[in-house]
Amino acid sequence: MTGGAGFIGGAVVAALLDAGHDVRVLDALLPAVHPRYPGPPPGTEGVELVVGDVRDPATVDGALAGVDAVCHQAAMVGLGVDVQDMPDYAGINVLGTGVLLAAMDRAGTGRLVLASSMVVYGEGRYVCTEHGVVPAAPRSRAELDAGRFDPPCPVCGRPLAWGEVTEDAAVDPRNTYAATKLAQEHLAAAWAATSGGTAVALRYHNVYGPRMPRDTPYSGVAAIFRSALEADRAPRVFEDGRQQRDFVHVADVAQANRLALGAAPPEGTLRAYNVASGTPHTIGEMATGLAEAFGGPAPVVTGEYRVGDVRHVVASPQRAADELGFRAQVTFEAGVREFATAPLRPAP
User: Fold this and answer.
1) pLDDT given at position 5
2) Residue 313, C-beta contacts closer than 8 angstroms, at least 6 positions apart
3) How far apart are CA 318 and CA 22, in angstroms?
């Protein structure tokens, strides 16, 4: 398990231990993400922990000794701050995955579960009442500055309705993180085709839950809202708060990884799955739900935006249900109530 000391990785480790697996964790414990722990990092108690960088071939070779399957969670996450983040994203996410796959080939380890992301889709699926399913063009700064947040039909300019994205949709990465996650999938597919191994890419949607990192430029929106409430600040909701997302609890994501490790896609292939709850909610609903459960200030809708954000992206989880037996169990209401007071990871 790479990245097994992280937010999602730690939850996956716990699920695999509960299922009777022996787990070895490889994690760099980068100071930008992890504080100095007085003992084993939370979530790694009772497992073998190798502290090292996934970009170092010797470290990865040692970590793979005797390993039957790899669950690759290690990554630099979030949209980033600006273009200056590109070398770090490419180094950790792309080079690190290449080093890992080469080491797996040397070790004869033929099963991979890759943590991918819904960001590979770019904007989600859109339908025009006149022209049917149409692509959504990237939103311009001028439109966003004017408060026109929903993409119009590229043919007639009518407002578009969002729909569910399936795994067969065309990919369209629109920021640095998305580009590196798609590159990971491409590398994994090339490894599988060359080595005869099997690879599963789990395209996570908006994951939230206990032990999320506190407020950093790379945090998920749910953790940013939680951090604001803890500081007695109103959560600041960008755009108009009506952006549709699928928030999926980290416990469900962990079970998706457990099921994927037992899946049997055809040898020499990569098979992608959306990991989502199947019940979308707006970002504004997440902010409001957390504020009410926490007992803090009500959210403020700011109209601000981030270049590279997408408007709506909602996925169909049907393939994961049919082929992996995965169905999310934690409802949005129950998950938000829990997360409102759940512990967050200490700041680094």
Assistant:
1) 92
2) 118, 119, 121, 122, 123, 124, 165, 205, 244, 245, 246
3) 30
Which tokens hold the place of 50?
């190798």
- Residue 278 reports pLDDT greater than 80: yes
Beta strands in the chain (DSSP E): 24-27, 48-51, 70-72, 111-117, 125-128, 132-134, 161-165, 198-204, 206-208, 236-237, 244-245, 247-249, 269-275, 281-282, 300-301, 314-315
Can you give the pLDDT at residue 135? 87
Per-residue pLDDT, 77: 80
Strand bridging mode 244-245 / 111-117: unpaired
Per-residue burial over 104-121, b = 16 or more CB atoms within 10 Å of its CB, e = otherwise: beebebbbbbbbbbbbbb
Alpha carbon distance 104, 251 (integer Å): 27
Q: Name beta bridge partners: 110.
A: none
Rounded CA gap, 51 and 28, in Å?
A: 5
In the block, which residue shows the tokens 């009777």?
Answer: 20
Quick check: 232 and 301 in contact, CB under 8 A?
Answer: no
The per-residue pLDDT for 342 is 93
Contact 125, 162 (CB under 8 A): yes
Q: How far is CA 316 from CA 266, 294, 335, in A?
A: 22, 30, 20
Q: What is the pLDDT of residue 139?
A: 81
113 touches 188 (CB < 8 A): no
Please give the pLDDT value at position 345: 81
The answer, yes or no, to whether residue 9 has pLDDT greater than 60, is: yes
